[in-house]
Amino acid sequence: MTDLIQKLPKAEIHIHLEGAILPGTAMELAKKNGVTLPDCERVEDLYSYDNLMEFLAVYGAISDSIVTVDDFRRIAYEMLQSAADNGCRYMEFFISPHAHKDVPFARQFEGIRKGMADAETDFSIVSRIIPGMNRELGPAAGEEYLDEVLANRGDDVIGLGLDYNEAPFPPEPFADVFARAAQAGLHLTAHAGESGPAAYIAGSLDALKVERIDHGYNIVEDPALIARCRDEGIAFTCCPSTTKYTTSWRDLSAPDHPIRRMKEAGLAVTINSDDPPMFATDLGREFELAHADLGFSLQDLKVAILTGLDASWLDETTKRQWRAEWVDEIDTALSN
């Protein structure tokens, strides 16, 4: 099953660059740049936490360790290499430039773009950037953040996200900055309904006008919202392993797990890795968990893969071409 899943073509549309840093790389860069990381006896113990706030603390410390152009090139390249090893052909990844204190956005983008170009050359993986806005800093900081993003924008900056700790930071105060991002031609998405209530999902759709929802698990508490999102075809970028750390649903095999219920309710569910090494996983492993624990049949995995491609922000011509090619490739793999 591992070999089969790895071979299937995939699009990854929910992964964080800073959350995809290998622990060994984090330790090396921290030492090089004079940054103190959380105490741990083994490299493998660096990523240890039991809830979203503990995770974000480690995430912040790791981000402090990434300083130079080559640091950013390295982490982008290694993230894309791992994804390509797991069948990923296309990736839209979040970045958190504000998490790298005193590192100019221009330096960060330069390194990230070098890593993207090198990975596309070496592994044929195409990638695009979604700067993620830290909701904890408030909408005024968000406006300044968007200014920096637009100043460093290229064709590879494809959207804007809203992330970090949800409660008590609802989406509505960010309506103006998201409207400005849309006017600038950026696609929109938001983390909602992970640690926040289902109302944050509705608020992201209504106030921010987002095109898809990242996580969204608490939608299971609102049947009317489920029906609305199903009717409107809103895609959810779900991440199975993450739920074991940042939500109250710790058992992936439980009948009431929200990703299972979202699929069974007919929502457009995609499978993604979020912060893979930080949650001891990778993209292929997430699809394995969906199959083994969350009740996804092989045909359900095919649907999830194609839903991820459909929900991506690739141009429509490329999506149509890839979709036809991927259908044939997946059907052939599953029939053998």
Short structural description:
The chain is an alpha/beta fold and 336 residues long.
Tally of domains: 1
Report the portion of residues in β strands. Answer: 5-15%
Identify the CATH class: Alpha Beta
As a whole number of angstroms, the C-alpha radius of gyration is 19 Å
Q: How do the strands of the widest beta sheet line up side by side?
A: 1-2-3-4-5-6-7-8
Q: Please state the second-level CATH architecture.
A: Alpha-Beta Barrel
Structural class: alpha/beta
**Mean pLDDT, all residues:** 95
Shape: globular
Count of DSSP strands? 8
Helical content, roughly?
40-55%
**N-to-C SSE series?**
HEHHHEHEHEHEHEHEHHEHHH
CATH superfamily: Metal-dependent hydrolases
Oligomer: single chain
Low-confidence stretches: none
Q: What is the CATH fold-level name?
A: TIM Barrel
Tally of helical segments: 14
Give an account of the 3D structure.
There is one protein chain. The protein is an alpha/beta fold. The chain contains 14 helices and eight strands. The protein has a single domain, classed as Metal-dependent hydrolases (TIM Barrel), CATH 3.20.20.140. The protein has helices spanning 2-7, 23-33, 52-64, 69-85, 105-123, 138-151, 175-183, 198-206, 223-232, 240-246, 258-264, 283-292, 298-311, 316-335; strands at 10-12, 88-95, 126-134, 159-163, 187-192, 212-215, 235-238, 268-271. The protein has an eight-stranded parallel sheet with strand order 1-2-3-4-5-6-7-8. The model has no long low-confidence stretch (mean pLDDT 95).
